[in-house]
Amino acid sequence: MAMDINNHVAFHEAKFIDQNGVLRNSSVPVVQELARQRLDFLPERFIRVSPTADPIAAPSSELHEISHIEVPDPLPCIDMSKIQLGDDLEDRDRELTKLAGAAKDWGMFLIEKHGIEPKILDEVKDVVKGFFGLSFQEKKASVGSYLSVDNMGYGRNFVKSEDQPLDWIDRLTMKAAPRDATQGLRVWPQNPPNFREAVEKFVERARKICDSLLHALAETLSVDGQIFIKQFDEEKSEVNVRVNYYPPCPRPDLALGITEHSDASALSVLVQFEASGGLQVFKDMKWLTVQWPVDALLINVGDLMEILSNGRFRSSWHRAVTQRDVERFSVALFYNPPSEAEIEPLKDGKSNNNHHGYKKVVVGEYLQNYYKISPTPTKQAIKFAQI
Ligand SMILES: O=C(O)CCC(=O)C(=O)O
Ligand SMILES: [Fe+2]
User: Fold this and answer.
1) Contact 360/344 with Cβ under 8 angstroms?
2) Looking at the DSSP assignment, which residues form a beta bridge with residue 15?
3) Where residue 202 falls among pLDDT bands split at 50, 70, 90?
4) How many Å apart are CA 244 and CA 91, to the nearest integer?
5) Cα(360)–Cα(385) distance, rounded to whole angstroms?
6) Which tens digits make up the pLDDT trace of 295-308?
7) Superkingdom, according to UniProt (predicted)?
8) Angle CA(183)–CA(184)–CA(190) in degrees, nearest 5?
9) How far is the CA of 271 from the centre of ligand 1 (A)?
10) Which residues does ligand 1 sit against, CB inside 6 Å?
11) Do 237 and 181 meet the contact criterion of CB atoms below 8 Å apart?
12) Which ligand is nearest the CA of 333, by number?
């Protein structure tokens, strides 16, 4: 009989709606607690079989190989100071061209000289490590529940069935905007006491970067610079923040930290802590490990941006792998237009063989479908918005 975890492990209670629309519960082991036991084997529920050869086309049934190919050309890195200050117009144009290529070919890029002070990022790292440094019971006591099946809160993973392979991750997800989104809910950790304040400072700054990028991305397409930003709203746009903790994993060749996905957002901003080497992007039919200097931020083009740009920009298909002796943290911020907004794609989507045109969608309806069907082995959620 295969060995499995012992009885002392704590569990998250995951609620999910199954394929027949029935609300179900599944007990998901708390990965951080499992990792504390320094197992020399991977519990069965985390072992996965290959989902994909080509995630955009047909899934393959081959055994999943979790490879570690370094990106041959490093991920494009955009100097935000050249875009935001724009002292030198030629330099700025070159940077915009690089940005356009990155958003089109990779759906993912790094940004440097972004202007967020190291102190703000250090405070986020401190509170996140403080939270994950608590015992499981203390964590549960520190953060309340969203009382709904929407992947928010502590330990809410994308669980859809009892037999789906689980991700080797422990995570915490919060709504940071609109400000009243969490009114009456005690869903921000109370411990460390400055958790919310530290994360909100980062959110405020990261949001400005997103706005600059929305403007710059529009410029690269020679359309009105406001065309994307105008679909956002100072008060009502949504910002969700997810903290990902990947403990050391006994079998990085058999488990994933986060299963492959595209972000549903318009744009995502990611910070990683000291450790690198976990994020992979699917490009040119291969999974490539991203080289990500720790002080750079990473931007993902999300599905909503793919829709807004009518397919000119592509949301990246990415995943996180685990490492044997390394723990890794990342913080992801997801920036969306207001939930009730009906977003309109740019006119005249460029046509090529792979291109699909997009139609107007209500953001909240897009997200609802995305969460309903995720995780999927191929890039499927975006079909909801295709003509
Ligand atoms: O940990 C990472 O680098 C990736 C996280 C991610 O893709 C997500 O939170 O959506
Ligand atoms: Fe992601």
Assistant:
1) yes
2) 25
3) very high
4) 36
5) 7
6) 899 999 999 999 99
7) Eukaryota
8) 90
9) 9
10) 242, 244, 258, 263, 270, 272, 278-279, 318, 320, 330, 332
11) no
12) 1
